[in-house]
Structures are given as structure tokens and as C-alpha cells.
Amino acid sequence: MNLREATVDDWPTIAAFFLTTPLESGTSFVLDRRPDFGALPTLRGSFRTFLAEQDGRLAGTVTALCRDARDGDRAILVGEIIDLRVALWARGGRATFLLLKATHQAFLAAGVHWVICLIGDQNRATIPLVARRAGFPEMAPLGSFASVHYMVWRVPSLLCSSRAHVRRATAADAAVVQELAAEVLVSERLAPAQSMPWPDPSERYRAWIATDPRGSPIGLLMVWDSEPVRRLRIHRYRKVDFPLRCASRLGAWARMVAALPAPGGVLGLWASCAVVVREQDPKVLRGLVGVALREAFAAGKCVLQLNLHAQDPLRSQLPRFPRSTYHSTLFGCPIPDNPCSLSSALALYHADIAHV
């Protein structure tokens, strides 16, 4: 089996390979990264992608992403293992070992301080990969996350009402958006060193601000539209989602709900980058979610994904609109070859679920 570093000329081949290697999160899906496979990791940092090949066939691929981060008040470099895929016929062989070894060497060459990997709790086949392998120390679980998928529907204005006024953020709100978003990042270890992108010239990000009767900001919801750099194509739904799919069809018939796609179709999705409610007021949260759902419906999306720490108190305050929840765990470890003797009182770790 041969291992080599990918080039831009390999992007079409890797993107096609992704369409044949589904991910499991209960629901089975593939990531459609055509036409530019490298566009997604470019948004987050520098990266190197490696390919394992055997007899002219692509056996597997992985990407070593390096990004600037902060641990408390210190600047560090974090390495993320992303986009690991191994063909079914190559599993159990040397492909995974070789890919992880190349990733480990890339991280050592870059001088990263931490290595992390986000794994969906239903994707159990990849759990052994975080054990001590290919030179990596054993990765420990750092935190659990919940991705709440709301079915997009035309929420009546009455259900969005609260004591707060919710409005779409504009370029003039840059300082307010960044101030509110920073409240999330400063509470997390390994969070990106850069501030949230606002205003966003690509128009992929949308944000809504909640203000109290005096006009003071008390809440923020920022989401990212992954198209055209990444599309989620459904491979197979999980059985427990059958009632939700039936409700989706009935709602679409009444022109009140965005219908979930059939297998093979694209799940139009807005994913949250920041959810902030300063006083933990459930009515403020309900107002933010309701307005976002209405705008997502108008934009033709199917799902609004809210990404939260599993222990975030906001989870219990979420509105009871039709939804399903998926869980993931962040694994990680410091790199002994490049020790980073940082101490931090922060208990939460950052996971950029929106951009995986």
C-alpha cells in the first residue's frame, strides 16, 4: 500500500470517494464536497491531506488541519484530525495506520500543542482510532456535544413573541455581534484565536440579535450556510426519525414545513456557530429560534442545527418545536513531543461542529 500527500489535482477524486463512504450519526449521510474539496478546511486554517492507495485504487484519506487557538490567555496551535475515510474493502488493513502516521508526522512538523478529533457517538467504528496508535498518545474524552436539529417550518409570529425584540443583524452591528459571540469563545479551551466573521462578505453567515425594551443586546444566534462548499446528502434515515419524516410530508403538503429530502437528496441546513442568551431567558431563546426558523423556511432550508455543549443549561430551555438530537464527543491530548505547560481554569473545550 502506498501513501502520498494529495494535491489540488486530487480534489475531484477525493470528493467522489466521499460520496461512497457514508458517515453514521444514527442517520447515515455523505458529505458532498464538490467541486472544491479543499474549500472547507481552508476556511479554518492550514491543512495537508493524505491518500492511501493500493493497486491504483483509493483506499483511504485523511486531513491534518492546523489552526491558531487560545488556551486561557495563551496563543497555541491545535491540530485536528478530520475527513478520515477508509474504503470498506480496505478496513482492517494498513490504510488507517498509515494515514494516522502521516497525520502525526504532519502535526509534529507543524509544532502543534494539542491534537483533537470530533467523533459522532453513533459512529462507533471510529472510536478505536483515538486509542494509542501510529505514534499518537491516547486521546481522552474532553467534552460531549448535542446537535439539535429543528425541522424548518413557518413559525407563527405569536410563537416567536417574547419580552425581547429579535432582529436580523446588519454590518452596522459588527461590534455587538462580536461582543456577544466572544462570550462563547472566552469560556472555552482551544477556541479559535480569530473572532467570529462579521460582517461576512461571503454571505454564508446570518445572525439575529435579541434586545431588551431599552435596546440593550441580550441574545445572539449566528448560523452558517455550508452551501456551496459542503452539502449533506442523506444515505439512510434512522428508524426513530420515521414520525418526523411523516410530519414533514404532511406539513409540506400544507405549505407550512420544509419537507425532509428522500435518500440521495440534499439536507439543506443552517448550523449554529454561536448561541448566546445572557440571562438564560427561555422566551428570548424561543424568539431567536423562531425567527431563524421562519427565515430558514423562506430560504428553502430543511433543518436548523443548534450546536450546544451537552451540559449547557440552554438545552433545557430550548423550545419544544419538532426536532431530533444527535450527540458527539471531542477527544484530544497534548503532544508530548512539543510540551505546552499551560494551565487554564476553563472547564469547557471548543468543538467547531458547524464546519466539520
What does this structure look like?
- The chain has 356 residues and is of the alpha+beta class.
- The protein has 2 domains: 2-143 and 334-344, 3-Layer(aba) Sandwich (Aminopeptidase); 147-328, Aminopeptidase (3-Layer(aba) Sandwich).
- It has 7 helices and 18 strands.
- The protein has helices at 11-18, 39-42, 95-110, 157-160, 174-185, 242-253, 282-298; strands at residues 2-5, 23-25, 27-32, 46-54, 57-71, 74-86, 114-120, 140-151, 165-168, 188-189, 191-192, 205-211, 217-225, 231-236, 269-277, 303-309, 323-334, 348-349.
- Strands 1, 4, 5, 6, 7, 8, 9, 11, 12, 13, 15, 16 and 17 form a 13-stranded mixed β-sheet that branches. It has a 3-stranded antiparallel β-sheet with strand order 2-3-14. A two-stranded parallel ribbon has the order 10-18.
- The radius of gyration is 21 Å and the shape is globular.
- The two termini are 28 Å apart.
- The model has no long low-confidence stretch (mean pLDDT 89).
CATH architecture of the largest domain: 3-Layer(aba) Sandwich
**Roughly what percent helix?**
10-25%
* Average pLDDT taken over every residue: 89
Envelope shape: globular
CATH class of the largest domain: Alpha Beta
Please state the structural category: alpha+beta
Q: What is the topology?
A:
Blueprint: E1 2-5, H1 11-18, E2 23-25, E3 27-32, H2 39-42, E4 46-54, E5 57-71, E6 74-86, H3 95-110, E7 114-120, E8 140-151, H4 157-160, E9 165-168, H5 174-185, E10 188-189, E11 191-192, E12 205-211, E13 217-225, E14 231-236, H6 242-253, E15 269-277, H7 282-298, E16 303-309, E17 323-334, E18 348-349
Parallel strand pairs: 6-7, 10-18, 15-16
Antiparallel strand pairs: 1-4, 2-3, 3-14, 4-5, 5-6, 5-11, 7-17, 8-16, 8-17, 9-12, 12-13, 13-15
